[in-house]
Design goal:
Shape: elongated
Oligomer: single chain
Helix content: 55-70%
Strand content: under 5%
Radius of gyration: 18 Å
Distance between the termini: 21 Å
Length: 142
């Protein structure tokens, strides 16, 4: 058992595994118990929320910003970058998608096409996108 659970009055792991949804069960097994349960991961791919996110992805890899945004503030492309970044966050952090998943490949390809010649992302999101993708890539590779 994990050493950190001894410091708690009650071990939360059995409750999380028993009553948590599939995504919570997957993360508990993966991050707290060090087990990669592929059966749970397969169940995540058929969640209604996941199917909705994937259905809304455009063929070129981005998700369209709902409502179109305010073109007086920034371009539609920047809004779509924002929405793509947001949907990537849901898929990666909440639903355990990894860089080998086709939707993630398409989305990151779209985002990196938005780079300038100096390999910088255009728009206000460049630092947070690079930071998140870099950290995610390192985490996903371990």
């Amino acid at each position: 058992m994990n050493n950190w659970t001894r410091k708690l009055k009650k071990n939360p792991i059995p409750v999380l595994l028993e009553k948590g949804d599939v995504a919570i069960q997957y993360w508990v097994k993966k991050d707290l118990l060090g087990k990669n349960d592929l059966n749970l991961k397969k169940q995540i791919y058929v969640f209604k929320e996941v199917k909705t996110i994937l259905r809304r992805q455009k063929p070129s890899g981005y998700w369209q910003y709902p409502g179109g945004g305010n073109e007086h503030i920034r371009s539609g492309t920047n809004y779509n970058q924002l929405e793509t970044y947001r949907q990537l966050g849901f898929l990666i952090e909440k639903y355990a998608f990894i860089k080998e998943d086709e939707c993630i490949k398409k989305a990151t390809k779209y985002l990196f096409k938005s780079q300038s010649r100096k390999r910088r992302l255009k728009g206000n999101l460049r630092q947070s996108i690079f930071t998140e993708l870099f950290c995610w890539d390192c985490r996903a590779s371990s």
